[in-house]
Specification:
Length: 407
């Protein structure tokens, strides 16, 4: 693996990728008595032409390119560092306009699929014990533009014959605690980048009210719920959010979600040696689903050995323990179980490892249990709004395509 450092100068100009870019462009053109059709040309250059600068918009007059450069920036995220893993996974550290930082991951696969793992918050407040993002603390919400740009930046580097295959909201932060901004970004990914909703996965640590809200009001994206244990004591020791939303409440929300949606729910499960990886833990998990009347054919388990983080001394389960847990769970529950492939581990780009460790500004640390009681939903621009966190986890949730099916 290797680091590439970038010293791109940060700008205070508004991003050309804001959701109302077209009317803003139209206003600039009108002010300078320029033809209105130029606005659509600019948008075509951005998304179809994959332009990274106004200078690349070669069919526009030079005077217009200079004018646009004085009014807009090509994105608000400033690339600070880039790291490539042995398996081809690419991790980027972006500086935000206020000096905070986030990480985004691109996973490249041999079959040409490209999956982007996106952050929804700078840091997190849930304090999940095994998660590097949770160990770091919460800084602020990301705007819908900042979320959208993480995908756009990789999109504009693809060849015309390539495309971003999948997007997983499994980077830094809890997506459902920033639901308005996440859904705003998702809508633009679908409309402007032509990424289908079913190729977008939104993850959550289990914010029950927002799961129901997403089911009733959101687009048909995929949902991934972090579970990690089949009883409240075990889950609560790993995830403080379980105090606010215990397993029964999360399962009830999942059942309601499935009543409104045709696609399955994925349950995420990090296997920790000697803690949650025994056959009895698998049986308990299967019993939990049955107790709450979740239909096996509507549930899919993604299990993955724990990835190391500096703030947690737990160890990954052995290969034998992983296979035994997965096969036991599949037989007992009737659910499909996939052992997910670990990617980007050598550059801390795997599940639970994102922390923006080289951040130029250290985040404000949140009181973890207190933050659990303040979880809410923020709208565009609510940078210091509702707190929440995900698991800093990266993976492709496209029906378990990156893992091995248990047989």
């Amino acid at each position: 693996s290797f680091w590439v450092y970038h010293n791109k100068r940060m700008t205070t100009l508004p991003s050309i990728y804001v959701s109302d870019a077209l009317p803003r462009l139209a206003a600039v053109l009108l002010e300078h008595k320029l033809p209105s059709y130029r606005a659509k040309q600019v948008v075509d250059f951005l998304y179809t032409g994959r332009a990274k600068s106004f200078d690349e918009m070669s069919s526009l007059p030079l005077s217009l390119r200079k004018l646009l450069s004085s009014k807009f920036s090509i994105g608000s995220l400033s690339l600070f560092k880039e790291q490539k893993a042995r398996d081809g996974t690419l991790k980027r550290l972006y500086k935000l306009h206020d000096g905070h930082a986030i990480e985004t991951v691109l996973m490249n696969y041999q079959d040409q699929r490209k999956t982007v793992c996106v952050s929804s918050q700078a840091g997190c407040a849930m304090g999940c014990t095994f998660c590097a993002t949770g160990q770091r603390g919460f800084s602020r919400q990301l705007t819908s533009t900042e979320i959208f740009e993480q995908v756009v930046y990789f999109h504009r580097e693809t060849k015309p014959t390539e495309r971003i295959s999948n997007v997983v909201m499994m980077g830094m932060g809890e997506p459902l605690a920033n639901l308005n901004n996440v859904l705003g970004a998702v809508e633009r990914m679908s409309k402007e980048l032509e990424i289908g909703y079913r190729h977008i996965t939104v993850s959550t640590v289990g914010l029950a009210p927002q799961i129901i809200q997403l089911a009733k009001e959101g687009p048909p994206v995929r949902l991934a719920v972090s579970l990690h244990a089949g009883n409240d004591d075990a889950r609560g020791s790993l995830m403080p959010i379980n105090k606010r939303y215990p397993i029964a409440q999360v399962m009830d929300a999942c059942r309601q979600y499935l009543e409104h949606r045709s696609q399955r729910i994925s349950f995420e499960y990090a296997l920790i040696a000697g803690k949650n990886d025994s056959p009895s833990a698998a049986l308990e998990l299967a019993a939990c689903l049955a107790q709450h009347k979740l239909r096996p054919e509507k549930c899919h388990f993604n299990v993955i050995p724990l990835n190391p983080t500096r703030g947690f001394d737990g160890l990954a389960s052995t290969v034998e323990s992983v296979q035994l847990f997965a096969s036991t769970l599949e037989r007992a529950s009737g659910c499909r179980v996939t052992v997910r492939v670990r990617r980007g581990i050598d550059i801390d780009a795997g599940c639970g490892q994102l922390a923006a460790a080289e951040s130029p500004v250290l985040p404000r640390r949140a009181a973890r249990l207190g933050a659990v009681d303040r979880v809410g939903v923020a709208g565009e621009g609510e940078g210091e709004g509702a707190l929440g966190s995900g698991e800093g986890s990266c993976g492709d949730e496209s029906e378990g395509e990156t893992g091995s099916r248990v047989s």
